[in-house]
Write a structure and sequence with these properties.
Length: about 240
């Protein structure tokens, strides 16, 4: 059964390809490829007409949440996707999700009815959809490679390339095409851990002068749409 509840520290970095290569050169001896090493993550994000959830996340609040439906690769209507609510409080992220057939998700959108063993998670999702008056607002995809520590699989590194989005065809089965976000091929690195980061990783970051960035993909893409033509700093 797919894991439905996640809780961990998550920190993001925006890197150049050269920085990624330098970092991996230093830390690869300690890593192994994750079980799902390479793939494309596709999501439909939900928000209201004022884009409250996106804008709120950019204000760096102590608490924020987002709702999305995610697939790994481009699904067909009878494939399993994940309806998720993701929360973050004081840097600690939690994710609760329900596995569901894509066709059943579309039925849930229409009727609000969903057969699930996860009644608590469904109640949270129902509450968010009603409280914020959510609707599909953006498709977002990226190509991910994933690593974990050889001795501690709870420490994970993911590298997301080719971040792209679209505001039409907001259905997962419509493919993973979209407008690229980064001009120069930057890579979003996410670091996920249950406890402290290992020393070798912290030492490598310090040696390469790599620092965290406050970066929400959905928030930043929305920001770029709102402030067209302005340079955005990822700090």
């Amino acid at each position: 059964m797919a894991q439905q509840i996640f809780r961990r520290t998550e920190i993001k970095y925006v890197l150049s390809e050269n920085q990624v290569k330098s970092l991996l050169w230093l830390i690869e001896p300690y890593l192994k490829k994750d079980k799902y090493f390479k793939g494309t993550n596709c999501s439909i994000y939900f928000d209201n007409d004022s884009r409250y959830l996106a804008i709120h996340s950019l204000e760096k609040p102590l608490y924020k949440e987002k709702v999305r439906v995610r697939s790994y690769g481009v699904p067909k209507l009878d494939d399993t996707v994940f309806l998720e609510i993701k929360k973050k409080f004081k840097g600690i992220g939690s994710k609760r999700r329900i596995p569901i057939k894509l066709s059943d998700f579309y039925e849930y959108q229409k009727t609000g009815r969903l057969d699930s063993d996860s009644e608590v998670i469904k109640a949270e999702l129902d509450n968010c959809f009603k409280r914020y008056n959510l609707r599909p607002t953006m498709f977002l995809a990226y190509d991910r490679t994933s690593y974990c520590d050889k001795d501690d699989p709870t420490f994970r590194l993911t590298f997301d390339r080719n971040v792209r989005s679209r505001n039409d065809n907001l259905r997962l089965e419509k493919g993973d095409s979209g407008k690229k976000f980064f001009k120069h091929g930057e890579v979003v690195m996410e670091v996920k851990a249950l406890e402290r980061f290992p020393f070798y990783f912290v030492h490598a970051l310090s040696k390469l002068k790599i620092y965290p960035s406050s970066f929400s993909k959905y928030g930043r893409v929305t920001e770029k749409e709102i402030f067209k033509g302005k340079e955005i700093q990822y700090v």
